[in-house]
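Key result, reporting period 2: structure in, sequence out.
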């Protein structure tokens, strides 16, 4: 029987959210018995897998996370028996809705993610579908090889998804599309049988057809389909090679033509043989047909890929243009110089990059405010060859009448900055606040490069004639004729939904007019499949349908994609009926348009799923579980606020469980190009959760800590040694365990004397006069005051040695960070207002306010802006507050910071605090240490895993360790014993000491140690 699936817009009862749907209970039970991996049919998991990076949302039946091919085969066989569709999925970064559907989802990204073999001599590799493109390339780098296609989402896009999408990237003019690089694959067919597809001589097809079963029927039928439409293929098939629409009939048909006619369907002449050896078109290879089929024909369990040598050197010419269409018109000229890529950025994208500090500092390659630039890249053996190629480009442009600024870039680090901005382009565009979004739909039309300017001119003119499209964004692969054109549309309005369809129809008409395709790399999915009858015409579209029926007679493999698709305006994530409830929020969410819009800024691109790089998202890096991504948390909250799961679910333990492993690291605020600040979103959520469910004792204790510390030193300072001893005794450990502190964790010991007391006693005995560089205010946090006064003392020593008069922020209160992260942001507001009133006048006078603990001083620059009652004074304070290293570097650059340093600084390994990396970067820390003569190496670490009180909690202890073990702790253990480990974060130092056995120091201690006596 067919499963009656719930509409994505209807609500689910609490019981339905917590139990397996009745109609698939038998399927779930059978899967549970035979699957070695994970079987998840609960409501929260189904909701988390109901979206991808597209506009669409459909609730799946359930999710299976297979550990091996046998799991995938068993899941497919059982689903077929129950007549339940099956949908293979990787990273869920699809932009067209390929990976959402009313089906049993097979998520290959958690376990089936291994590189199986590498043959260096033949330049091939076989991998499982769940490995990401970036991780595969990282493993291949040791052999000097890589996969040619480089999708912008490579850090989270899996090989399986990239093959299923026929993905490519910026270098497609060299390496083609995935279909040009796929050699063989092992697959599961729709009946559950296994097959292996690879290159065959056309003469061997009759023998393959006689093998019987579904595989035999496929080999018997597909050649007949192709022969029946051969003339139509030659005449009507899109003439541009950059195509991800439909099935790859042209690639198989070419092998069936006589050799002298194959060129009629071949585009191999575009490849330069010294760079790429594309797959042969004289062989009949069903792997070529499965590539780009979006999981509708078969399910891959491994794939063999052609590899290419890694380039030795690259250079960039950033060509500036005064008109967007001029940049497109120049592409045919630029292609004459044989670049490896030429990518377009428009003004809108560059402006959005300038608005985010993390990206603005990487925009050094743009001079002035041009409407468009082309990032044109060349490969070469050495700098001399690269310079010659850049000179040839400039000479040709000048000879052809182009007069523009050309910025040459040969430094690898600066080139990496350029490509990081380009690859973040989509999500930077999606960072626009407000109801109008640069939505996908027509963004993937691909036409021959010589027609690119004509196509772009017509589609821009059409969009600008529409009253409900305020602007259009344009970027991407100009050299391949594939521009991502994104009109700004309000997807929550009826007019916006109608506009989505209207623009799509016009784009499809223009694609046919200019001999292109509706998709050049992102695929058809739900966004574009409905236009395939227009793109291919009735005869060829009927052939596509027949191919689908041949492979999948019961229409159970990812139905509704490529053929027989619903209109692109169905199953929308948003729409005119979309509504959210309002909360009486603690933070000011005005800049985002409200709490719900702040959550909705997550567009599903899944940058939070990257592994082994950056910091976001530390819990996902440890668990590889979708619910532990920033995307998963945003999805859960958005669906509850919108009533797609019952509103009463918003404050249940299940919902809190989705939020639980957010460490508040703030990496998403900078590493997510849409700047989704999940740390603040969670802090807001926890306030309301605790109002509904009560505040746990652990949270109360963490919030009381600054007050309890003050009481201890005020009422019984003589008991400090006894308190320190008692906290480490078994009875105390047992008591602390009952409130949630892991027994293997030691709470920070109290110092014999507070930092404040030391400072004031010293001030009374110090008869020196004013120092030449003037006053600074030291914002001493709770930890430095009560637990680590030696760090404050080191900071005072350094500042005074450099000629500054140090004053404490007398009367200051705790910054409020423990309250904010612990779900008590409402209780932190009085402290916030007190500190703003106290410190803003100093900032107003230009007196710097310097922090010791990065998270504390950065709270003044971040959360205070959304919590303070007086937002204007909070802004003044934020502008005058600095981390210690920021202040040092600012003053060094101004020529004022000149203490006497020892010569011959030691080697330093630096671990940056998460908030510091997210909000200001590591650069100041490196520069400050270098100013003192140290040789600095930055540990390429993510989050340490401690995150304030997170790592102390019993339920988080193991995940805290796993997060640290990702990169940080192994790097510390392997470090030279003589090297100094520097970590300015209190939590970071405790985590490193606890798990790696090394004692790090604060940056201020390192600088103090470098002072000349």
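The corresponding designed sequence is given below.
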């Amino acid at each position: 029987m067919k499963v009656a699936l719930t509409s994505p817009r209807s609500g689910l009862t609490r019981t339905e959210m917590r139990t397996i749907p009745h109609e698939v209970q038998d399927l779930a039970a059978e899967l549970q018995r035979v699957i070695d991996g994970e079987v998840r049919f609960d409501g929260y998991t189904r909701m988390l897998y109901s979206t991808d990076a597209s506009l669409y949302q459909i609730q799946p039946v359930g999710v299976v996370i297979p550990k091996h091919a046998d799991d995938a085969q068993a899941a497919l066989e059982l689903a077929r028996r129950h007549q339940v569709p099956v949908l293979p999925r990787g990273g869920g970064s699809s932009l067209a809705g390929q990976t959402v559907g009313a089906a049993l989802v097979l998520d290959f990204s958690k376990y089936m993610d291994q590189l199986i073999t590498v043959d260096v001599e033949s330049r091939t590799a076989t991998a499982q579908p769940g490995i990401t493109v970036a991780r595969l390339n990282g493993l291949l780098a040791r052999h000097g090889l890589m996969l040619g296609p480089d999708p912008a989402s490579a850090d989270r896009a899996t090989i399986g998804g990239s093959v299923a999408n026929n993905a490519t990237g910026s270098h497609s003019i060299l390496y083609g599309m995935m279909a040009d690089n796929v050699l063989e694959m092992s697959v599961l067919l729709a009946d559950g049988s296994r097959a292996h597809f690879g290159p065959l001589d056309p003469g061997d097809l009759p023998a393959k057809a006689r093998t019987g079963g579904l595989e035999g029927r496929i080999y018997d039928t597909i050649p007949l389909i192709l022969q029946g439409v051969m003339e139509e293929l030659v005449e009507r098939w899109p003439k541009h090679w950059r195509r991800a629409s439909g099935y790859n009939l042209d690639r198989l048909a070419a092998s069936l033509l006589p050799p002298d006619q194959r060129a009629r369907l071949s585009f191999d002449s575009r490849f330069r043989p010294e760079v790429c050896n594309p797959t042969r078109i004289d062989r009949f290879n069903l792997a070529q047909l499965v590539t780009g089929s979006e999981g509708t024909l078969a399910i891959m369990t491994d794939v063999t890929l052609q590899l290419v040598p890694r380039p030795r050197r690259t250079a960039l010419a950033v060509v500036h243009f005064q008109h967007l269409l001029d940049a497109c018109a120049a592409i045919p000229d630029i292609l004459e110089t044989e670049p490896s890529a030429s990518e377009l950025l428009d003004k809108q994208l560059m402006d959005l990059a300038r608005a985010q500090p993390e990206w603005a500092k990487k925009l050094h390659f743009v001079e002035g405010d041009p409407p468009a630039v082309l990032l044109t890249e060349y490969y070469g053996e050495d700098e001399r060859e690269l310079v010659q190629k850049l000179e040839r480009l400039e000479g040709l442009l000048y000879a052809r009448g182009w007069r523009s600024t050309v910025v040459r870039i040969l430094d690898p680090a600066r080139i990496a900055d350029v490509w990081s901005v380009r690859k973040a382009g989509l999500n930077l565009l999606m960072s626009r606040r407000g109801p109008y979004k640069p939505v996908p739909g027509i963004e993937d039309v691909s036409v021959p490069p010589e027609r690119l300017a004509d196509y772009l001119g017509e589609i821009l003119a059409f969009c600008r004639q529409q009253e409900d499209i305020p602007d259009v964004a344009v970027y991407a692969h100009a050299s391949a004729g594939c521009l991502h054109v994104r009109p700004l549309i309000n997807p929550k309005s009826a007019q916006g939904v109608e506009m989505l369809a209207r623009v799509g129809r016009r784009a499809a008409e223009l694609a046919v007019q200019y001999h292109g395709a509706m998709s050049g790399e992102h695929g058809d999915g739900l966004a574009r499949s409905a236009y395939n009858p227009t793109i291919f015409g009735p005869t060829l579209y009927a052939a596509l349908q027949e191919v689908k029926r041949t492979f999948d007679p019961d229409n159970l493999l990812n139905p509704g994609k490529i053929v027989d698709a619903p209109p692109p305006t169905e199953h929308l994530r948003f729409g005119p009926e979309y509504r959210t409830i309002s909360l009486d929020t603690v933070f000011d969410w005005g800049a985002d348009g409200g709490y719900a819009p702040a959550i909705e800024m997550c567009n599903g691109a899944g940058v939070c799923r990257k592994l082994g790089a950056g910091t976001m998202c530390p819990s996902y890096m440890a668990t590889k579980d979708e619910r532990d991504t920033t995307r998963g948390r945003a999805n859960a909250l958005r669906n509850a606020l919108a009533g797609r799961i019952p509103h009463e679910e918003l404050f249940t333990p299940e919902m809190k469980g989705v939020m639980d492993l957010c460490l508040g690291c703030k990496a998403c605020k900078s590493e997510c190009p849409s700047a989704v600040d999940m740390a603040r979103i969670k802090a807001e959520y926890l306030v309301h959760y605790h109002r509904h469910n009560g505040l746990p004792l652990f949270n109360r204790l963490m919030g009381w800590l600054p007050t309890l510390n003050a009481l201890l030193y005020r009422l019984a300072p003589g008991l400090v040694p006894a308190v320190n001893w008692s906290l480490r005794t078994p009875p105390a450990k047992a008591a602390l365990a009952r409130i949630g502190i892991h027994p293997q964790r030691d709470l920070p010991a109290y110092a014999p004397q507070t930092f404040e007391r030391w400072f004031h006693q010293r001030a009374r005995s110090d008869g020196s006069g004013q120092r030449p560089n003037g006053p600074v205010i030291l914002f001493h946090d709770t930890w430095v005051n009560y637990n680590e006064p030696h760090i404050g003392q080191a900071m005072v020593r350094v500042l005074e040695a450099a000629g500054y008069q140090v004053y404490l922020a007398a009367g200051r209160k705790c910054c409020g960070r423990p309250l904010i992260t612990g779900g008590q942001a409402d209780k932190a507001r009085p402290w916030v207002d007190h500190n703003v009133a106290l410190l803003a006048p100093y900032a107003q006078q230009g007196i710097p306010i310097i922090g010791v603990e990065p998270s504390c001083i950065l709270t003044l620059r971040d959360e205070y802006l959304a919590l303070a009652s007086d937002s204007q004074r909070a802004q003044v304070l934020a502008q005058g507050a600095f981390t210690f290293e920021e202040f040092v570097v600012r003053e060094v650059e101004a020529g004022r910071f000149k203490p006497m340093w020892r010569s011959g600084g030691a080697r330093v390994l630096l671990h940056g605090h998460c908030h510091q990396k997210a909000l200001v970067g590591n650069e100041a820390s490196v520069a400050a240490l270098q100013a003192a003569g140290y040789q600095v190496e930055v540990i390429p670490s993510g989050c340490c895993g401690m995150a304030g009180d997170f790592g102390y909690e019993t339920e988080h202890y193991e995940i805290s360790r796993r997060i640290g073990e990702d990169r940080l702790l192994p790097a510390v253990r392997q470090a030279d014993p003589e090297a100094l480990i520097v970590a300015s974060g209190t939590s970071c130092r405790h985590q490193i000491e606890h798990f790696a056995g090394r004692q790090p120091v604060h940056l201020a201690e390192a600088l103090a140690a470098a002072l000349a006596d």
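Residues 1-17 have pLDDT under 50 and may be disordered. The domain at 751-899 is CATH 3.40.50 (Rossmann fold). This case is discussed further under Risks and Mitigation.
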